[in-house]
Amino acid sequence: MGTDYTTEFVASSQNAVDALAQINASVDECITKMKQQAIASAAMSDYTSALQEQQTALQQLTDAGNEYSEALKAQAECPSKV
């Protein structure tokens, strides 16, 4: 009877070890996914900021182009002193 108990205990212990290994693997996978999400979130924030900066730069370029066109138009309307 002692042998049966020992065999069952060892088998039970191995099942517990296997279950813990599976839990550890699941936790590691979850942590990896959470790290990936954090990195993606940070990258998205940087990307959004870059798009906003690009839009601002484009608006400044458009404004400068409009000012330049207005200056050329004003210059063309002035009589030449030549």
Judged by helices, strands and strand pairing, the structural class is mainly alpha
Rg computed from alpha carbons, rounded to a whole number of angstroms? 35 Å
Q: Helical stretch count?
A: 1
* Overall mean confidence score, pLDDT: 88
Secondary-structure element order, N to C: H
pLDDT < 50 runs, ≥5 residues? none
Task: Report on this structure.
The chain is mostly helical. The chain has a domain at 22-55. Helices cover 93% and strands 0% of the residues. The protein is built from one helix and no strands. The chain has one helix spanning 2-77. The chain is rod-shaped and about 115 Å long. The termini are far apart. 0% of the residues are buried.
Short key terms for the protein model shown above:
single chain; 82 residues; mainly alpha; rod-shaped
Secondary structure elements and pairings:
Elements: H1 2-77
Can you summarize this structure?
With 82 residues, the protein is mostly helical. 93% of the residues lie in helices and 0% in strands. It is built from one helix and no strands.
